TrEMBL record:
Keyword presence, RNA-binding: yes
Matching PANTHER family: 60S RIBOSOMAL PROTEIN L23A (PTHR11620)
HAMAP family, A to Z: Ribosomal_uL23_B (MF_01369_B)
Keywords: Ribonucleoprotein, Ribosomal protein, RNA-binding, rRNA-binding
Family per record: Belongs to the universal ribosomal protein uL23 family.
Biological function: One of the early assembly proteins it binds 23S rRNA. One of the proteins that surrounds the polypeptide exit tunnel on the outside of the ribosome. Forms the main docking site for trigger factor binding to the ribosome.
SUPFAM superfamilies given in the database record: Ribosomal proteins S24e, L23 and L15e
GO cellular component annotations of the record: ribosome
Subunit structure: Part of the 50S ribosomal subunit. Contacts protein L29, and trigger factor when it is bound to the ribosome.
InterPro entries registered for this protein in UniProt: Nucleotide-bd_a/b_plait_sf, Ribosomal_uL23-like, Ribosomal_uL23/eL15/eS24_sf, Ribosomal_uL23_CS
Family annotation (Pfam families): Ribosomal_L23
Name of the protein described by the UniProt record: Large ribosomal subunit protein uL23
């Protein structure tokens, strides 16, 4: 099994995701090869909470230019986590 900290890359902290926190929903960038079951287990192990639902979204790479050089941004995967009603809020997001 993969290490849970290799699956969860970093949280997504925006105005929209901070509004979602009132509904016990959190957003993370995750490994592009991770599936919903692995993401659920990783969040439950790292934060010691119960996950009710996991929704994922693949973000495609986009073409970018830097001067005369052409390239692409990295492809990413977002995971939207819904906690159960009896779970406590994540300590990571306290004070945000």
């Amino acid at each position: 099994m993969k290490d849970p900290r290799d699956i969860i890359k970093r949280p997504i902290v925006t105005e929209k995701t901070t509004d979602m926190m009132a509904e016990n929903k959190y957003a993370f960038y995750v490994d592009v090869r991770a599936n919903k079951v692995e993401i659920k287990k990783a969040v439950e192990q790292i934060f010691d909470v119960k996950v009710a639902n996991v929704n994922t979204l693949n973000v495609r790479k986009k073409p970018k230019r830097f001067g005369r050089h052409n390239g692409f941004t990295a492809a990413k995967k977002k995971a939207f986590i819904t906690l159960t009603a009896d779970s406590k809020p994540l300590e990571f997001f306290e004070g945000v």
